[in-house]
Amino acid sequence: MAYISTRGEAPKISFTEALLAGLAPDGGLYVPEAMPRLSPEEMRGFAGKPYVEVAEAVISPFLEGALAAPDFRAMLKAAYQSFRHKAVTPLTQIDDNLFVLELFHGPTLAFKDVAMQLLGRLMDRALKARGQRATIVGATSGDTGAAAIEAFRGLDQVDVFILYPHGRVSDVQRRQMTTVAADNVHVIALEGTFDDAQGMLKAFFRNRVLREELGLSGVNSINFARVVAQMVYYFTSAAVLGGPLRKISFTVPTGNFGDILAGHMARQMGLPVEKLIVATNSNDILARALASGRYELRGVHATQSPSMDIQVSSNFERLLFDAVDRDPAVLRGLMANLDQSGAFEIPPAALARIRAEFGAGSTSEAETSAEIGRTWRECEGLLDPHTAVAVHVARQFLARDPSTPMVALGTAHPAKFPDAVRAATGVSAPLPPHLADLFERQERFDVLPNDAQAVARFVRARARAATGKHGG
After folding, report:
1. Tell me, what's the pLDDT at 80?
2. pTM over the 0.90 mark
């Protein structure tokens, strides 16, 4: 299995190389040269199987030789034994043919744990095998940072630097990052937006000298291994609801497009998906793009669902690459327009392909709160604001097609957003026991200006790979 860049100007590489690189040196994102497929018989066999077994069947074709099967199986078991539910990602029904896929039973209470717990183990093993250190840099709008820190804390091969937008994440999200007492973890509160942080990290990866000096590696969903791991729960939830003998629709609250891209890839592998629904808050660039055909940046508004307060949806590039028949020249032109003018027009044929597979809707702040309240009143289910965005949009699409089961992805535990939940329901969602003392723990973080040189100096001064030892 070879991996190529969406921009077409980087050499083909292996899974392990793509895992450690994150972003391609030409600024593109790595994708498989060809997608593997699962047969209907294989997918029917997923019904009733443990999550780890399904994960092995779905992910293994992408690894091809990177790991021996027994080693990968042991890694999967270790990754998911820390989840608080035996099903790992259980389904809960909240209305007629409407289900919530609970992806928040991992150690940091967010869907990012599903991929990050595996990613940390894969990267640590690969680095040890090569005798290398890596400097992991990540931008977070709330949940990726905590999940990455939890997955990589204390590992000798890596130093972790996480940037989050100062003052734009919930108190629980911030404290999950800033209260980890590990020498290899560095948390940076950036005086800017998530898009500023993400743009800064992309520039670091395009800087060959800095990239090589620090042994840079990425854990955002630009890292293809993240997306591969997220594909698994599309298969497990579909199996519970009768797939592949019937089609299922999925509604995904999304900002950076990684979680719903995993559904697109599951569909490419053969999973019968009726529709993938993009659910956004008022930062609705994706919904606008699907409606108008114009992808256009506007200002980012702070909302009660901060993990979706994003305008530059990195993984949309991977979908566009498929939609333009994997023509890297066309893709490069679109991305150049985005860099130059903050917008581009999706080619008509590509837009038609995207609309055939995807729908989209947005949810206002008032609608988000109302949905949290409604679900609590009707079935005593507590939703965090991101999941509420998805459920609200899912109800709209389910009304148009009530016969197809609709799965809304539940991306965070309601305890991560206590103020929003309490305001909408009058009740509180307690933190699980392992986080009960979170607000008593000491915080450690540095506030830095929205300046790439200042951040680079900070990382250089603290990254052990910068000593020149990252080459082994």
Report:
1. 98
2. yes
